[in-house]
Amino acid sequence: MSDFKLVFLGASTVGKTTLFQRYTKGFISQTQTSIGASFGVRKLTMPDGNECTLGFWDTAGMERFKAISRNYYRGADATLIMWDVTEPASFNTAVEWCEEVHNNHPEILICIVGNKIDCLTGTEPTKPNERKLVAATKGMLFRVSAFTGDGIDDMFSQIAHQLIENKDKVAEAPAAPTVDVKAQKEGGGCGC
């Protein structure tokens, strides 16, 4: 079984806590603006029968908590960088988070999540700036509704599949060459 750490990032009021609660607890309670971070876990059984555990950190979206949020995504396997599809300014904040995570920790899988699709009047196509952001970060793009649950199970299944695939690639990679320091010291050479 594989364990993965996922961190929610994004502007305040984009629905991070609602998505976190729906997926980890199965319900939505009254949410208030998050202060600090919350932790939750969900186990998934993949179609091939393998299981994985997703550990989620729900971080505060207010600007004053941005430095704290950085501590949570260090060592993460994936970030869910969210924006509100009805609020264009929140996409700009998502772009900033994507750039920060990608530039400082390119090994982290970036999942760009447009939330609140239930508030749209119709099916809105993916926009060029969204596709450009996904290409620049080598990430994944999703559109969901934390309120209705639309697209959430499929999103996390795809993310888990990608994380398992990434982990398998690392495990299959050839090991880095090692140096036998003891043998070098005995031979009279420098042991450094």
Summed up:
With 192 residues, this protein is an alpha/beta fold. The chain is 38% helix and 23% strand.
Q: In terms of topology, how is this protein built?
A:
Elements: E1 2-10, H1 16-25, E2 37-45, E3 51-59, H2 66-73, E4 78-84, H3 88-104, E5 109-115, H4 128-137, E6 140-143, H5 152-172, H6 181-186
Parallel strand pairs: 1-3, 1-4, 4-5, 5-6
Antiparallel strand pairs: 2-3
How would you characterize this protein structure?
- With 192 residues, the protein is of the alpha/beta class.
- The chain has a single domain (2-186), classed as 3-Layer(aba) Sandwich (Rossmann fold), CATH 3.40.50.300.
- Helices cover 38% and strands 23% of the residues.
- It contains six helices and six strands, in the order βαββαβαβαβαα.
- A six-stranded mixed sheet has the order 2-3-1-4-5-6, sandwiched between helices.
- A hairpin with a 5-residue loop joins strand 2 (37-45) and strand 3 (51-59).
- It is globular.
